[in-house]
Each structure stands twice: as structure tokens, then as C-alpha cells.
Amino acid sequence: DAGLLRSFWSTWRVKAMASQVGSVLITRMMPESEVSAILQNRIAHVDMWHLESAMPRDELLQRVRGKDGILCFMSDKIDAELLDAAGLSLKMVSTLSVGLDHISLAECAARSIRVGNTPDVLTDATADLALALILATTRRLPEAWTAAKDGGWGPWKLKWMCGKQLSNATVGIAGFGRIGQAIGKRLLAFGVSKILYCDRTRKPDVEAEYKAEHTTKENMLASSDMVVVSCALTADTQGMFDLKAFQQMKHDAVFINIARGGLVVQDDLIEALKTGLIWAAGLDVTTPEPLPLDSPLLHLPNCVVLPHIGSATHATRDAMLRLALQNLLNGVTGQPVVSSAK
Fold first, then answer.
1. Which of 148, 222, 233, 286 has the fewest Cβ atoms within 10 Å of its own Cβ atom?
2. For residue range 150-192, what is the model confidence (pLDDT) as tens digits?
């Protein structure tokens, strides 16, 4: 069957036409119907990896040679080595993510290579996941589920499985951009008393709407009942949540990270959870990803770990793919990139 064979081959090609230009690499297998809908009749050659898992580095370095564009993912390191391997033909790097920490923007800029990402379309899904993770952590849902199915559910006891509630809580948000504000909006519906946010820039136009107050990182940590991390990973923010930061938090505070694992010194978080520096943590991102099965984070009763599913709804992932493909097409054909990375 030609269709079945095509899905297993490492290269997917569309029939070249006079109006088609360029050659692009897609580093993971994506639905051919979506790829074709945007690139067919426009791009002469589409080389797509045949697996949903990441393309091996040596394969990536080989197949990027001579390409005009690349559609990459967070697992693909777009650095000087890869850009050198691609050669002078590379015009566009499109990533199916908001985060850009896997791309050397300076190296791309030095080569006049445009970069596109997929913000906005995943804001609501990621904010929803943040609230789910907050509730799962504060109300100890994984512990309760384990008790229910493993025989730990006994007679009613006054304080059994008691957690924390959001109403009247002070919530700190590190990074008050699109996703941070969407999280704040949802928190208001749960009756939080105040939102403290730390960000490079104050956002006075939204503070009244979200009952938000701009403050220092130190004050946010010391004053918040829970801290939600939604900032970008940069050289300045790498490891910003370390042992010193956890020592500044309340002992009964909850730490939530839905941004990037590299923002946290993970061994320090483990120590903080083990020693009671903080009450609990909920993580959708870790270092590395996936976590080794023997990681203490997966075995601590006061830590909830999810496998980086912040944007994982059908509607959001479809929208991300369409935007990434459109960015790729526009960059290769010399059109304005829909969402150009800053």
C-alpha cells in the first residue's frame, strides 16, 4: 500500500511544480495531511523524519545540509554546529514551541536566519494545566487516588488527606506575560486574595484586573502561599529557584513549575521537599525530560510530576503545528513570518 509505505519512509516528497521553491526538513513525523495542506504546491521538497521521537543528532546534522528551512522541536539543539552543517542556504528556523532556549538566537541573527515560534495559541491550554497541577498538588489528588485503589481508604478521619485551598491565598507568579496573566485570571475564580508577580517589567495596565501587585522576587517568595513559575528560561533565569530561594519561602508553601526545568536547581528542590523547607511541589517540567525512573521527585509523596503536557490538547497542538508550518513556509518564500521570535 503506497500510503502505508509513505508513512514509514524517512523522506516525504511532494511532486515538484514550477511554482514550488526550496527544501525543508521537519525533524519529527507530523500528520501528512496537515503538512501537505500548507506546504504542498509551495515547497518543492519536504524531508520529514519517519518517527514521532526525536531525530538523532548525527542524522539531523546530515539531513539539514542544503535545506532552506527547518521545523524543529524543543529536543533539537539549534546551535552553531547545526547552522554550519546546514550551510548558507538556510533561511528559516521554525520551532513548534513558545520557548526558544534550544535555539541560539545570536547565531541565527549573525547568519541572517529568521526564527519563528508558536506563542498565543497555547496560552489557554497551558494555563488550564497550571490550574490542574495546582489543584492536584494542593489537594493531594495523586495520594488520594493511590489510597483509593491500593486499599488505603479506611474509615473517615478528621484530618486524613487534608490539603490546602486557594480561596484567600496569596499566589506569587514568576513571569507575568501571556501565560502568567491567564493563570492569574483563572486563580481569581477560585477566590485568591492577592497575586504578587515578579517580572522584568511592571504591567500596570493589568494589575487592577488581576488583583496583581508587582514586587521583587524575594518579597514574592516570602509572602506567597504558593509560587507559580511561568517565565522564560534565559541565561539570567537559569537556576533562579535554588536552595536560597526555597529557604525564603514559607514552610507550608507550594511550588509549581510549568515553564522550564532549567529554571530550578533540581537537587535543591529535592532537599527542600525532603527537609520540609516547603510543603509540596507540582512540576510539569523537569531536567532532564523524561526523568529517570529512580529520580527522587517521582517517589516523594509531596511532589506531583507530569510529563510536560502543558499544551497537550488536540486543538492546541493542531494550532501550534499549523502556525509552525506557516512560519516555515513564509520564511522560506521570503514572506513576513507570522510569529517572529523576539
1. 148
2. 999 999 999 999 999 999 999 999 999 999 999 999 999 999 9
Alpha-carbon distance 231 to 223, whole Å?
19
Ramachandran area for residue 87 (φ above 0: left; ψ -120 to 50: alpha; else beta): left
Q: Which letter does DSSP use for residue 78 in this model? A: B
Whether omega for the bond prior to residue 119 falls within 30 degrees of 0, making it cis, is no
* Widest Cα–Cα separation across the chain: 75
Task: Report d(CA 196, CA 174) in Å as an integer.
Answer: 9
pTM value is 0.89
Instruction: Kindly report whether the peptide bond that precedes residue 290 is cis, defined as omega within 30 degrees of 0.
Output: yes
SS3 assignment for 191-240? CCCEEEEECCCCCHHHHCCCCEEECCHHHHHHHCCEEEECCCCCCCCCCC
308 catalytic per annotation: yes
